[in-house]
Predict the structure.
Amino acid sequence: MMQFEYKVEGGDFTNAGNASSEVKKILKKLNVSPKITRRVVVALYEAEVNIVAHAYRGDIIVEIDTEKIRIQLNDEGPGIDSIEQAMTEGFSTASEQVREMGFGAGMGLPNINRNADELNITSEIGKGTNLEIITYLNKEN
Amino acid sequence: MKIKDIIEKLELKVIGGEAGLENEISGAYTSDLLSDVMGNIDDGNVWITLQTHKNVMAIASLRESSAVILVKGLQPDVDMLEKANEEGIPVLGTELETFEISGKLYQLLNP
């Protein structure tokens, strides 16, 4: 099994997407299919931007084995009040500044859900949010 | 059709990312919401937008866009331009508004 770790700083939009970009390069090198790579990258990018837009800082741990890619994103931040509400298309708590950049349309978590084979979210108010995104490598079609 | 072909036919200005002028175009997508683009644009599409910050290039790179067209004479932020040059993804400029350039490109790609 291979493991990669990345750090994300809250508010640092300049570097948002760097982890996703690194993971994309790794998946390409490993000859993961373009379709699965796309799903992983879309889900990871949205999750990475969520940390930048909402949390103070976070860690991304990517584990790759022969059957799946497992990504954990653990952040220190305000947490999510209602995960059900956050999963609703169009619901967003993003700031005005974040919205002006074209983020915060309430599409991030739904995008992650659509592109993950498994998505697990736990969150504690005032502490932070943990995401687990699993993509299976043999689930082509 | 290649990026250099639409530059000529639509009188687009090349602002950066010259290394990608031979990129093949698979279609186009018009949107200013980044998550919408991330979730829905197809690989090889031209992306038409008014967003001018660096995150545009992050998405264009992750989704393998063939080029980004900035509308209404907008200029990219310095770090967006740097990233475009680094990634070799053309950033093109038009004085036209989003509706007009999208319509013209649509006609060109769907004769």
Remarks:
- Residues 3-109 of chain B form a domain with the Udp-n-acetylmuramoylalanyl-d-glutamate--2,6- Diaminopimelate Ligase; Chain: A, domain 1 fold (CATH 3.40.1390.20).
- Residues 22 and 46 of chain B are 13 Å apart (CA to CA).
- Chain B has five helices and five strands.
- Chain B has one domain: 3-109.
